[in-house]
Amino acid sequence: MSENWNAYITQIEDSIASVLLDMGIASDAPDPQRTVLLRVFIPLQDPDEYGMTSNEEFEAIQPLEEGIVDALEQGIDAVHVGCLTHDGQREVAFYCSSVDGVGPALAPVVQQHPSYQLKSSHQEDADWGFYFEILYPSLYEFQSMQNASVLHNLMEAGDSLEKERPVSHWLYFPSEQARAQFISSVQEKDFQIEQESLGEEADDPTPFGVQIERVDHVDQASIDQVTIELLELARTLDGTYDGWETMVVTEE
């Protein structure tokens, strides 16, 4: 387990789902010593209209979830990788070498929380497919998470996010031609070209950089739309999107 945990909202088939996952563990996954996916299911007693955890029930579930994690980490040396909430239940996901001892490990937790009837399932998952294909965010979801982090910092600084302001973006491309094509496309969308750059690392696959700027709103929906549009355009040219920044705007 790492210290780099994050959360996001996604959709599974026709249902809204909330994902909490250990993103830091991705660099070390899959773990060849832990090839079994173990999922512990907590049926929600009072889900909201979307099948998600209500604020009231979250307070009751939190110590139950912590108990499950502690019991399985200590009892069978499992690694907790994330949680998935949808359709009126919360799944707590682990990878382990064996499920031997799961029942005895969870027994004290079940006794402490008798109102919740836990269920579990396990399967071989040596490639950690559940982690990478279900829990881990897509490129677009990951960008939205990055956007949310920037917005959090702005709000912490007293920004209401209500006013539009200049927003700068950085992108990188494999060739000067690809960058020029990108520049031509974004200029048609009223972006200004702030500067162009060239990386000095010999093995840099995208050394041709550009900083662009446009006045935009920066609420979550607005900045998601802008950044994902830029990300998609860059990908068509084998380029990469490398984030954005803006000024803090406070009420006068």
Can you lay out the helices and strands and say which pair or pack?
Elements: E1 5-12, E2 15-22, E3 36-43, H1 55-76, E4 79-86, E5 89-96, H2 102-112, E6 119-124, H3 129-135, H4 139-156, E7 165-173, H5 176-187, E8 192-198, E9 208-216, H6 220-236, E10 240-246
Antiparallel strand pairs: 1-2, 2-4, 3-5, 3-6, 4-5, 7-9, 7-10, 8-9
Helix pairs in contact: 1-2, 4-6
What features would you describe in this structure?
- This protein has 252 residues and is of the alpha+beta class.
- It folds into two domains: 5-135, Alpha-Beta Plaits, CATH 3.30.70; 139-246, RraB-like (Alpha-Beta Plaits), CATH 3.30.70.970.
- Helices cover 35% and strands 31% of the residues.
- The chain has six helices and ten strands.
- The protein has a six-stranded antiparallel beta sheet, sandwiched between helices.
- Strand 1 (5-12) and strand 2 (15-22) form a beta hairpin.
- The two termini are 44 Å apart.
- The mean pLDDT is 94.
Keywords:
single chain; about 250 residues; Alpha-Beta Plaits; four-stranded antiparallel beta sheet; 6 helices; 10 strands
Helix tally equals: 6
Low-confidence stretches: none
State the distance separating the first and last CA atoms: 44 Å
Give the amount of beta strand, in percent.
Answer: 25-35%
CATH topology name of the largest domain, in short, is Alpha-Beta Plaits
The CATH level-2 architecture of the largest domain is identified as: 2-Layer Sandwich
Order of helices and strands: EEEHEEHEHHEHEEHE
| Cα-based radius of gyration, to the nearest Å | 22 Å
Provide the CATH top-level class of the largest domain. Alpha Beta
* Classification by helices and strands: alpha+beta
| Biggest sheet character | 6 strands, antiparallel
Helix content: 25-40%
Total strands: 10
What is the average of the pLDDT values? 94
- Shape summary: elongated
